[in-house]
Design a protein that fits this description.
One of its GO terms (biological process) is carbohydrate derivative metabolic process. It comes from Crossiella cryophila. InterPro entries: GlmS/AgaS_SIS (IPR035466), GlmS/FrlB_SIS (IPR035490), SIS_dom (IPR001347), SIS_dom_sf (IPR046348). By secondary structure, the protein is an alpha/beta fold. The chain has 13 helices and 10 strands.
Length: 351
């Protein structure tokens, strides 16, 4: 009889990588000066607007960065569609535009091609990746290493949250900030994982037989809602859809009923406050609401998972942690192995 290894224990890699995140955050902060140096070059170029290119979990990181850019930098920002370049051959003028490609692997051919094309068309290009020697890094002028270390589980956990923190540190430094709100993010992450553990375990039992889940949030937390839906779908094979709280009321709420589980991301701040009315409507439809975040106690919900409070613009870095634990627990409770979800690979290559 051979000893049991991480490779044979379902979810062992994902569990370890979730637990590693506080240390990853501390490591990123230790390298803030390198990120600030990249930010200084961006600030000198004075971009007129910012475009983010990404796929999968990284696309949710880009959505978060879009909010940061529009709110903290007061610059217009957008999410690009790489296929407009790779499939349709579009060649817009990108003079004085900042183009940020976000990719954990840096290996997706469409992102590489679109980024290389953007640079030729005048954009200042930046790669935010976990792979400093990736093809994406080789075609950009500047790069930020998220420093998460090798990730073995197929579902992104530490690379996702590290991407969020790296983007925050970059954008905060562009505006001349000193990242004071992130100074204790490692300790807060430790608390978020420890304090949420009993509630997550209870939530796993509560929702293990759910068939349909809606995830929702507003503002910065829209990115967390989108990532939550992806995590639940890819690890537990749940039918999960993400909506902003505003969009949920514009039609999709009609499909919410007593058979629907709603995962609501509600952290302290303007976004969380805007969710109160939304969740009152959803509760009136009979849905089972699980509120996650530092404002979970302030909204209508049947179940709550609290998260330590921080500046609103940093809340997605913390509020995703118990959601990852929930996805892991549900996958195992439903008989799956989140380290090896069916039909998925660590790097997805598209064009």
């Amino acid at each position: 009889m051979t000893s049991t290894t991480a490779e044979t224990v379902p979810g062992a890699h994902m569990a370890a990588e979730i637990a590693a995140q506080p240390g990853v955050f501390r490591g990123l902060l230790a390298h803030r000066a390198e990120i600030a140096a990249v930010a200084a070059q961006i600030a000198r170029r004075r971009p007129r607007f910012v475009l983010f290119a990404a796929r999968g979990s990284s696309d949710h990181g880009a959505l978060y960065a879009k909010y940061l850019t529009e709110v903290l930098l007061q610059l217009p920002a957008g999410l690009v569609s790489p296929s407009t370049t790779t499939l349709y051959g579009a060649q817009p003028d990108l003079t004085d535009v900042l183009w940020v490609s976000v990719s954990q692997s840096g290996g997706s051919p469409d992102l590489v091609e679109a980024t290389e094309s953007a640079r030729k068309r005048g954009a200042l290009t930046v790669a935010v990746t976990n792979t400093p020697d990736s093809p994406l890094n080789q075609v950009t002028e500047l790069s930020v290493d998220i420093g998460a270390g090798k990730e073995l589980a197929v579902a992104a956990t530490k690379t996702y949250s590290a991407t969020l923190l790296a983007l925050y540190l970059l954008i905060d430094a562009v505006r001349g900030g000193t990242a004071e709100h992130a100074a204790n993010i490692g300790d807060l992450a430790d608390s978020a994982l420890t304090l949420a553990e009993p509630a997550v375990a209870e939530a796993v039992q509560r929702y293990r037989f759910a068939n349909r889940v809606v995830t929702t949030g507003r503002g910065y937390s829209s990115a967390t809602a989108a990532e939550a839906a992806l995590k639940l779908a890819e690890t537990s094979y749940l039918s999960a859809r993400a909506y902003s709280g505003a969009d949920l009321l514009h039609g999709p709420v009609a499909a919410v009923d007593s058979e629907t589980a709603v995962l609501a991301i509600t952290s302290a701040g303007k976004g969380g406050a805007a969710m109160r009315e939304v969740l009152e409507v959803v509760q009136g439809r009979g849905a089972d609401i699980c509120a996650v975040g530092s404002a979970a106690d302030e909204v209508a919900a049947a179940f709550r998972i609290g998260v330590p409070a921080t500046a609103e613009e940093l809340s997605p870095v913390l509020e995703i942690l118990p959601v990852q634990r929930l996805a892991l627990g549900l996958a195992l409770a439903r008989g799956g192995d989140p380290d090896n979800p069916r039909g998925l690979n660590k790097v997805t290559k598209t064009r």
